[in-house]
Design a protein that fits this description.
mainly beta, Elongation Factor Tu (Ef-tu), domain 3, 13 strands, elongated
Length: 171
């Protein structure tokens, strides 16, 4: 399943929750009648969205079976997921975050830099968070740097400017 949002906090007294969006298609993903899967720790359960309104581009949603602020508070931090087969096809050269996580990142000469553990940012300024031997390295997800992206083979070849990898190391 792919994460499409996270419950940030309750909103109001009737069980609605504010969502931190993790999809490029919030208008499609968050609509009344749409089924999402709520994941909290090891528990994953389906739930239907009953109401939606957007406030400052963030959805505030109602969920079936969540009618009080107390029940909404229990959802704080939960992931909202959908099965991968329900995702819209993307244009050439664009990728879902979950497709990139787990990819090996290699230098142009074939040397292993590390493995992608997360993708930060939005479509305009995304960064690969790479677990490398010297710490976590941030690699801009830009065509000038990421020369080959092959999510099927779980491989990304990068050709970063001199010093970029050393500059972006987080111990």
């Amino acid at each position: 399943m792919a994460v499409v949002g996270r419950v940030a906090r309750p909103h109001g007294l009737r069980g609605q929750v504010v969502i931190d969006v993790e999809t490029d298609f919030p208008g499609e993903r968050f609509r009344p009648g749409v089924e999402v899967f709520v994941r909290q720790a090891a528990d994953v359960r389906p739930v239907t969205i009953t109401s939606v309104r957007f406030q400052r581009e963030r959805p505030i949603i109602g969920l079936e079976g969540v009618a009080t602020i107390e029940s909404a508070e229990k959802l704080a931090g939960a992931e909202l997921r959908v099965p991968v087969d329900r995702l819209a096809p993307l244009p050439e050269g664009t990728y879902y975050r979950h497709d990139l996580v787990g990819c090996r990142v290699e230098g142009a000469g074939g040397s292993l830099i590390g493995v992608v553990v997360e993708v930060e940012g939005d479509a305009g300024s995304s960064r690969l968070v790479v677990d490398a031997p010297g710490g976590v390295v941030l690699v801009p997800l830009a065509a000038a740097i990421c020369r080959t992206i092959d999510p099927v083979r779980k491989r990304i070849v990068v050709d970063p400017p001199a010093g970029l990898l050393d500059l972006n190391v987080r111990p």
